[in-house]
Amino acid sequence: MDLWTKMHAKQLLPSIAVMIILAIVLKVFIGKKSEKIRMIPFQIISVILVILEVIKQVLSIKRGYDLYHIPLHVCSLFMIFYPLMAFYKGKLSKYINGFATALTGALFILMIVYPNLIYSAGNIKNYFNSFFDFHTVTMHTIAMFGFFLIVFLDLYKFDVKKDIVYYLIILLVYCAVAGTLAQVIQTNFNNFLECNVPPIENLRVSVIDAIGGVGQVLYVIIVSIVDSIVFTIAYFLIFGANKLVKKLIK
User: Fold this and answer.
1) What is the mean predicted confidence (pLDDT) over 66-85?
2) Cα-Cα-Cα-Cα dihedral sign, residues 217, 223, 229, 231
3) What is d(CA 198, CA 161) in angstroms, rounded to the nearest whole number?
4) What crossing angle do the helices spanning 78-87 and 93-113 adopt, rounded to 10°?
5) Given pLDDT bands bounded at 50, 70 and 90, which one contains residue 249?
6) Cβ contact 31:38 at 8 Å
7) How far apart are alpha carbons 30 and 104 in whole angstroms?
8) Model's pTM, two decimal places?
9) What pLDDT was estimated at residue 121?
């Protein structure tokens, strides 16, 4: 079980360095501007993500649609919640923005700890040979840049007590929908059908062999709980990072 590969180190570490440099430059030049100005870089990456997703869906339809391309993965939520955070200013914006913030923090954690779970070395190797590999790597990299933009440009006003309730409700609704459809159409959204981590997958199979279908239900529930824990850790990570940047870069 490789958390990182050489390909990930070559691609991801320079990408993160560039993101940090860009975020610092943006902080210096527009960090004290109005939220409307500070939100522009976030709006740009949101539009790019949507364009990439539209192209992916069109190409998938043309070649014979792959059910795995249905946007029901956790990372597919970036295509919904990033544009909403970037452009929507209505009554529900507090709920939306809190979830988008926790979501980008969760991606950041996984990209730092276990990037091989997000996309494979093969995706990186075939980056210029296949649009779908290009999309996988580019989409997750751009989405992770949202983490640095939120942190450095102070794009979200945290309300810890309320935020936790907001993002957990949205997350659990997603888990109920994606977890159910993963079983119905036998497609592995968010690892709800089977686990990409070999030791855990072996345990899942063993439990199902021992107690039957209820084992799969328990597995989906456990995945949902783990997602909730990761999102909560991610929320406080980005909350702390935002405070630290405010102290270090004024």
Assistant:
1) 97
2) negative
3) 36
4) 130
5) confident
6) yes
7) 21
8) 0.94
9) 96
From CA 65, how far away is CA 57, in angstroms rounded? 8
Alpha-carbon span 224 to 216, nearest angstrom? 12
In this predicted structure, the answer to whether residue 247 has a pLDDT above a threshold of 80 is: yes
CB 192 within 8 A of CB 177: no
Rounded to 5 degrees, what angle do the CA atoms 123, 128, 130 make?
65
Question: How many C-beta neighbours within 10 Å does residue 212 have?
Answer: 10
- Output the pLDDT for position 2: 87
Q: How far is CA 7 from the centre of its chain?
A: 20
b/e string for 2-38 if b means 16 or more Cβ within 10 A? eeebebbeebbeebbeebeeebbebbeeebeeeeeeb
> Taking Cα atoms as reference points, which of 98, 27, 38 lies closest to residue 245?
27
| 145 Cα distance to chain centroid | 11
**pLDDT score at 12:** 96
Instruction: Using the predicted structure, report yes or no on whether residue 1 has a pLDDT greater than 80.
Output: no
